[in-house]
Amino acid sequence: MKMSQLLSPQLIQIGIDGSSKETVIQSLIAILENNGLVSDPEQAFLDVMDRELQQSTGLEKGLAVPHGKSTAVKKLVGALAVSKEGIDYASLDGEPSHLFFILIAPPNMAGPHVMALANIAQLARSEAFRSKLAAASSPEDAYRIIKEAEMGD
Amino acid sequence: MDFRTKPEKIMIYIEASEDSIIAAQYAVCLAKWFGARISAVYVVDIKTLQELTRAKIFVKLEEMDYEKALEDDGTHYLNHVRELAENKGVPVETILLKGDVFAEVAGRMKQDNIDLLVMGKLEEPESRRDFFYNTNERIFRRAPCPVIIVKDSENIKIMYDNL
Predict the structure, then answer these.
(1) I need a labelling partner for B74 at 20 to 30 A (CA). Which of A83, A111, A130, B125 fits?
(2) Is residue B5 predicted with pLDDT exceeding 80?
(3) Does A151 sit within 8 Å of B127, measured CB to CB?
(4) Does B163 reside within a domain?
């Protein structure tokens, strides 16, 4: 599943409330909740944090992909938050994270979850894509950047 | 396939989706009419799981957990296809493979000399990248035999039920 199919401008936030991993994840889940995509935000938070305990999903080059399986969602859901300043997310390269893609899937939806994660991995390999997205001026702008990257432009 | 004869070996490419089940119903109808046998193939996409681990999005334990989940999905869908075929008296073999989806399906078609491939509807390609890299597009375009793409239709279920 492509990110443009999973996201919409309503599921993208420029700027994040919070300065720690926990508050970032809470902010991302709040986006999902505000769009009616999470029935139990606390459970969703615990499930995503459970995955964080295995290894930080703060990767390298400013990208973080918090994810997990949770009964708090009925289908695969996702949101994106962008922090221009960067947040200490205990990333693997020790650098601040700027792009936060959260993906949560019900426990029985492994296939679409894997394909959506693979889509993020593919897009985020491009430094130009990461830079453009980190500089997005609005949710609509961010969504357009994602869509164009998927089109191969 | 020798076009002077009817297809004898029909492969259904199965994904964990309702579209695949509709395609399977259609394939069972074709097999019944032609007196053909069916092989239903599902591939656990190990290649993508490994790429996610290399990209550090997955940890190794998570990769194994998802592999098991995808395998369970495949077994579930293949069992369903087996039932669909057996209910209509069509000989069926279910095959669960692991690896690169395109390579595994293409390899199996060649190995088994498949006469006809049946698969669920394709997503609308939005870019040249989709044409070249989308797995289902590649399977469709590079199959060494005729391919039938089954679009969602009420008629197929009726056709299957009335078989």
Answers:
(1) B125
(2) no
(3) yes
(4) no
Is B60's Cβ below 8 Å from some Cβ in A? Answer: no
Residues of A whose CB is below 8 A from B45: 111, 114
On whether residue B67 sits in a domain, the answer given is yes
Contacts of A121 in chain B (CB under 8 A): 51-52, 55, 57
Contact A111 B15 (CB under 8 A): yes
User: What is the predicted pLDDT for the residue at B123?
Assistant: 78
- The secondary structure of B100-160 as a DSSP string is -HHHHHHHHHHHTT-SEEEEEPPPPP-SHHHHHH-HHHHHHHH-SS-EEEEPP-HHHHHHH
pLDDT value of residue B153: 79
Q: What band does B61 get if pLDDT is binned at 50, 70 and 90?
A: very high
Residue A130 structural domain? 3-150
CATH code, A116: 3.40.930.10
Residue A70 tokens read as 């949770």
Express each pLDDT in B36-53 by its tens digit. 999 999 999 999 999 999
| A114/B51 touch (CB, cutoff 8 Å), yes or no | no
Q: Is residue B162 part of a domain?
A: no
Residues of B in contact with A111 (CB under 8 A): 15-16, 45, 70, 73
CB atoms within 10 A of CB A135: 14
- Substitution target from A114, A150, A151 for chain B, most B beta carbons within 10 A: A114
Spatial separation of the C-alpha atoms in residues B84 and B106, rounded to whole Å:
24
Q: Is the ipTM of this complex over 0.90?
A: no
Give the structural domain span for B130. 9-157
- What average pLDDT score do residues A88-114 get? 93
**What is the tens place of the pLDDT at every residue in B71-99?**
999 999 999 999 999 999 999 999 999 99
Distance to chain A for B99, nearest Cα, Å? 14
